[in-house]
Design goal:
In chain A, 50% of the residues lie in helices and 15% in strands. Chain A is α+β, with helices and mostly antiparallel strands and 386 residues long. Chain A folds into three domains: 7-116, Acyl-CoA dehydrogenase/oxidase, N-terminal domain (Butyryl-Coa Dehydrogenase, subunit A, domain 1, Orthogonal Bundle), CATH 1.10.540.10; 122-217, Butyryl-CoA Dehydrogenase, subunit A, domain 2, CATH 2.40.110.10; 226-381, Up-down Bundle (Butyryl-CoA Dehydrogenase, subunit A, domain 3), CATH 1.20.140. Chain B is 41% helix and 13% strand. Chain B has helices at 6-20, 40-59, 78-88, 98-112, 115-126, 241-253, 272-283, 290-318, 327-349, 366-371, 375-378, 383-394; strands spanning 132-135, 151-155, 158-169, 176-182, 193-199, 205-209, 219-230, 234-235. The termini of chain B are far apart. Classes of the chains: A alpha+beta (386), B alpha+beta (420).
Chain lengths: 386, 420
C-alpha cells in the first residue's frame, strides 16, 4: 500500500476498512464457508456505496476516482480486502466496469449503472481451461453470423458466475478478440459450480452451446477488442496484487505477534536469531511487494510505456515471494498454523488463489523477460550519450 | 554561481562533457570488482586520467557540486548533482574520486574537520590532487568495525600508530588515509576510538596488494609500524572516534544516493545488470530462447522490485514513516538480489563463462563474476548484519547477547591470531 495518502484517499481506505471489520469479521467469513454465493447481496450493495465499483468508471457514467489515479485508489480498497480476506469479486467486477464504460451503448451503460450500484452481479468469462490458461491465450470462439454472434466453448474458472445476472464473455473472432455481454440465464448457457481454495470466493465452469446474441451485445467492435481486454487483464492483475499484499501484511503482523507471545525453552521465539533473520528476509519481500504493486498501479494510472512490464513483474514477484512468505508464516506458527481453527489460512487462501489467476508467476516472469530481451539497450539503461 | 538554475547548470554541464570527455565503450558497465586484466601501468594511466578529469571539472566549476564554495565546491544543490549524474551517463568520469574519496572521506572532513584541515584537503581533493582511502576494516573482524585493534598511543604532540588495515581499494596509488584507531583500551569498545588522517606513502606504512579469486588486485592491506601522526591530523575528539564513525557509516550507507558523489545514471542501479544479461543472451545466440527469457525475466523482475523498494524506503525515511534503520531492508534485498543476478548471468553464458577468449564479449566475464558472487553479500557489512539491524531496530525484536558491551575493551574475548 502507498506510504503517503491524500486525505481523500485515506477517507476512502478507512471507510472500507471499518465497513469490512464490521460486516465480515472472521467468524462471519467462517460462516460463509458453505454459502453458495460466498457473500450476502446486501453486503455487496452496501460496499458499492463506498465506491468499490465506481472508481474506474468515467464521471459521465456515474463513476470517478478520488485522486485522479483510479487504479491506485482502487488498490487501497483491494489492500483492505486482502487484509481481511473479504468476500466478493472485486477484481473481475471492476474489469467488467472498465469494459462497459468504454462502450457507446446505452444498453451497456444501463447495466453498468446497476453493476456500479452493486444491484447486479456480473461475471467475467475470461479464463479458459488448461492448456489454454496461459496468459494472453484466448481460443473460445465467437462467430459472426449475419446480425448475430454465436458463442461456443467453455470458460473456467469464472468467479461468481452462479450469483451473476450478467456475463461478460471474452472470445476470439478470427484474428482478433471480441467481448459480448449476455444475460446469465440465456438459452445454451450451463453454469456448474467448482470447489474453491478460497473460503468465500466462488468459481464455476460456464459452458456455451450455440448461444446466439444480437450484434448489439458486442462490447466494443467485433474482433477488435484486444487492447481493451489487455487493459482489463492488467487492471484485474493489479487489483489482485494489492489484495495479495494486504493478505501478506496481515499474515506477517499476526506472525510477528505470535513469535513475541510464544515461548520455547524458557525464552520467546522472537529472541532466537534463526527466527529474527527469517523475519528480516520476510520484511524485505513484503516491502518489495508493496513497492512493486504500487509502482504497477501508478504505471496503469499514468499510461506508462512500462505498464505491461511492471504489472507482470509485480504478478511474478508477489505470486512467488507472496507464496513463500505465507508459508513461512505458517511454518513460524508451528502445528497450529496448519489447522482450520487458526485464522492464518484465510489469508493464505487469498494469496494462493490470486497467484493462480491471470497467469502463473513463472508465465509472468517469462513475459518480463520477453519484454526486456526485445527492448533496445538504451531504453533499459534510461540514459547514455544521445 | 550558487543561484544557477538546474536547467542552466545542466546545459553548461552537457556542453562541457560533450566537448571534453570521451564516450565510454559499452563493456565498462557494472561490475567494480571485475578483473579487467589491466596492467599496473594501465591502471596508473587511468588514475592519471581520473586526476586530469577531476581537475578539468574543477576548473569548469563542475567539481564538488554540493560542496561549499569556501572549500572550492560549487555550492549547488542535490538536484544539480542529479542533473550532472544524468548528463555524464555514458561518458568517462573520475570514478576513482567518488568512493571513498568524496564520500565518506571528504564528507567526514566536512562534518568533523577543523577549518585548517578542511582548507588543506577539500580543495586539493576537488582539484584531483588527493585520492583518499578509508583505513577502517581490519583482518581481525570485518563487520565489527568498532572492534578495531589498531592502536594509537600519544607521545607529546604526536600519536604512534600500530596495526593492520584491509580492504582499501587502490591504496597503492592513493594519497591519504582516514583511519579509525584505538586510543583507550580500558573503556568499552565504542568509547576508546579516535580518527586520524595521514599520507599513505611514508615511513611506517607498508601497502601490500591482495589477489582476489578472480585475479584482480584492486584491494590492499596496510601494515602500520610505529607510524607517527601529528595531533593536528586528528579528526574529532580523542576517544570520540565513534561519533565520527557513526557519520562515516552514514556516508557509506548513503553512497548511491549521496549528493557528494557522482553516480552516472545506469551505474549500480537502474537495470544495468539486466541490460548486460540481455547482451550476454544476444552474444550467445539465445535472445529468442524461451529459457533465456525465463532467466532475463527473473533478473529484470528482481531489479525492478529492488528499484521500487529503494524508492519506497527513501520515501518512508524522508517522511518519517520509517526509521533510518530501514535502509538495512534495501541493503538486504540488494545483497540477495545481486547474488542471484550473477548466478542468472552465469547460467545464461553457459560454458562460455568458464572457457572463453577475448572475442566472447560480456559472456567471458560471467564465470569469474560468479566465482566472486558473494562479494556484495559481504562488503559494507554482511547480510547477517543487515538482518540483525532489521529484526532488532526495525521490528524491535530482542538484541543479540553482546559479550563486548559495558566491558573494558582489553577484557573482550578475541579469537585467532589477534591473541598473540
Amino acid at each position: 500500500m502507498l506510504l503517503t495518502l491524500s486525505s481523500e484517499q485515506e477517507a476512502l481506505r478507512s471507510t472500507t476498512a471499518r465497513f469490512l471489520d464490521d460486516r465480515v469479521p472472521v467468524n462471519v467469513l467462517r460462516g460463509l464457508r458453505d454459502d453458495p454465493a460466498g457473500f450476502d447481496p446486501q453486503y455487496w450493495a452496501k460496499g458499492a456505496e463506498l465506491g468499490w465499483l465506481a472508481l474506474l468508471v468515467s464521471e459521465a457514467n456515474g463513476g470517478g476516482s478520488v485522486s485522479g489515479r483510479p487504479i491506485s485508489d482502487l488498490c487501497l480498497i483491494a489492500y483492505e480486502f486482502g487484509a481481511r480476506a473479504a468476500p466478493g469479486p472485486l477484481a473481475a467486477s471492476n474489469a467488467i466496469a472498465i469494459a462497459l464504460d468504454a462502450t457507446n451503448s446505452d444498453a451497456h451503460h444501463a447495466v453498468l449503472e446497476q453493476v456500479v450500484a452493486g444491484g447486479v452481479i456480473a461475471a467475467w468469462c475470461y479464463s479458459e481451461p488448461p492448456p489454454n490458461d496461459r496468459i494472453g491465450v484466448i481460443e473460445f470462439e465467437i462467430v459472426a453470423d449475419g446480425n448475430e454472434l454465436v458463442l461456443n466453448g467453455t470458460k473456467r474458472p469464472v468467479e461468481s458466475a452462479s450469483a451473476a445476472q450478467q456475463l461478460l464473455v471474452t472470445g476470439r473472432t478470427g484474428t482478433g478478440l471480441t467481448q459480448v455481454l449476455v444475460p446469465a440465464d440465456s438459452p445454451g448457457i450451463t453454469i456448474t459450480p467448482l470447489e474453491s481454495a478460497d473460503l468465500t470466493r466462488r468459481f464455476a465452469t460456464v459452458r456455451f452451446d450455440n448461444v446466439r446474441v444480437s450484434l448489439d451485445a458486442a462490447v466494443g467492435a467485433v474482433g477488435e477488442a484486444d487492447a481493451q481486454v489487455e487493459r482489463q487483464v492488467l487492471a484485474a492483475i493489479t487489483i489482485g496484487n494489492a489484495e495479495a499484499v494486504g493478505a501478506m501484511q496481515r499474515a506477517f503482523d499476526m506472525t510477528r505477534s505470535w513469535v513475541a507471545d510464544r515461548y520455547s525453552f524458557g525464552r520467546p521465539l522472537e529472541s532466537y536469531q534463526a527466527i529474527k533473520h527469517r523475519f528480516a528476509d520476510l520484511l524485505s519481500w513484503l516491502e518489495g511487494a508493496h513497492g512493486i504493486a504500487d509502482a504497477a498501479a501508478l504505471a496503469l494510472d499514468t499510461d506508462s510505456p512500462e505498464t505491461a512490464e511492471l504489472v507482470s513483474a509485480a504478478k511474478a514477484f508477489i505470486g512467488d515471494r507472496g507464496g513463500e512468505l505465507m508459508h513461512e508464516c505458517v511454518h513460524l506458527h508451528g502445528g497450529i498454523g496448519v489447522t482450520f481453527e487458526h485464522d492464518l489460512h484465510l489469508y493464505l487462501r487469498r494469496v494462493t488463489v490470486n497467484r493462480a489467476m491471470f497467469g502463473t508467476p513463472k508465465q509472468h516472469q517469462r513475459r518480463v523477460g520477453e519484454i526486456a530481451a526485445h527492448r533496445k539497450d538504451e531504453e533499459i539503461r534510461g540514459g547514455g550519450p544521445a | 554561481m550558487t543561484d544557477e538554475s538546474v536547467e542552466a547548470f545542466r546545459l553548461r554541464a552537457r556542453e562541457f562533457i560533450r566537448a571534453n570527455l570521451k564516450p565510454l565503450p559499452r563493456d565498462e558497465s557494472y561490475s567494480p570488482l571485475r578483473n579487467t586484466r589491466t596492467t599496473d601501468e594501465e591502471e596508473l594511466a587511468s588514475v592519471k586520467r581520473d586526476r586530469e578529469i577531476q581537475r578539468m571539472l574543477f576548473d569548469a566549476k563542475l567539481a564538488g557540486i554540493c560542496f561549499p564554495t569556501e572549500y572550492g565546491g560549487a555550492g549547488l544543490t542535490p538536484a544539480h548533482q542529479r542533473a550532472f549524474n544524468e548528463e555524464i551517463a555514458g561518458y568517462e568520469y573520475p570514478s576513482r574520486f567518488q568512493a571513498p574519496t568524496l564520500s565518506p572521506c571528504a564528507g567526514v572532513l566536512l562534518d568533523f574537520g577543523t577549518e585548517e584541515q578542511k582548507q588543506q584537503h577539500i580543495p586539493a581533493i576537488l582539484k584531483g590532487e588527493e585520492l583518499w582511502m578509508q583505513f577502517l576494516s581490519e583482518p581481525s573482524g570485518g563487520s565489527d568495525v568498532a572492534g578495531a585493534l589498531t592502536s594509537a598511543v600519544r607521545e607529546g604532540d604526536e600519536w604512534v600508530l600500530n596495526g593492520e588495515k584491509v580492504w582499501t581499494t587502490g591504496a597503492w596509488f592513493s594519497d591519504w588515509g582516514l583511519c579509525l584507531a584505538r586510543t583507550n583500551w580500558d573503556v568499552p569498545k565504542h568509547r576508546g576510538l579516535t580518527v586520524f588522517i595521514f599520507p599513505i606513502h611514508q615511513q611506517g606504512v607498508t601497502v601490500s596488494r591482495i589477489e582476489m579469486i578472480n585475479g584482480s588486485q584492486d584491494f590492499c592491506q596496510e601494515f602500520l609500524d610505529d607510524l607517527r601522526v601529528p595531533d593536528s591530523d586528528r579528526i574529532g575528539e580523542v576517544d570520540g572516534g565513534w561519533t565520527v564513525g557513526v557519520r562515516w557509516m552514514f556516508h557509506e550507507r548513503m553512497l548511491m544516493n549521496s549528493p557528494l558523489v557522482t553516480v552516472p545514471v545506469g551505474v549500480g542501479n537502474r537495470g544495468a545488470l539486466t541490460s548486460s544479461i540481455v547482451d550476454v543472451a544476444r552474444e550467445v545466440g539465445r535472445i529468442d530462447d524461451p529459457d533465456a527469457h525465463d532467466i532475463i525475466g527473473e533478473a529484470r523482475t528482481l531489479e525492478l522490485v529492488k528499484e521500487k523498494l529503494q524508492a519506497r524506503i527513501g520515501e518512508g525515511m524522508a517522511t518519517g514513516k520509517m526509521s533510518d534503520q530501514a535502509a538495512a531492508i534495501g541493503r538486504l534485498f540488494g545483497g540477495t538480489t545481486g547474488v542471484r543476478l550473477y548466478t542468472l548471468a552465469f547460467d545464461l553464458a553457459g560454458s562460455t563463462g568458464v572457457a572463453w577468449s577475448d572475442a566472447d564479449g560480456l559472456a567471458r566475464y560471467c564465470g569469474e563474476d560468479f566465482l566472486m558472487r558473494q562479494t556484495g553479500a559481504i562488503g559494507g557489512g554482511t547480510l547477517e548484519m543487515a538482518r540483525n539491524v532489521i529484526s532488532e531496530r526495525v521490528l524491535a525484536m530482542p538484541r543479540e547477547q553482546a559479550l563486548d558491551r559495558d566491558v573494558p575493551f582489553r577484557d573482550v574475548p578475541r579469537g585467532g591470531a589477534a591473541r598473540t
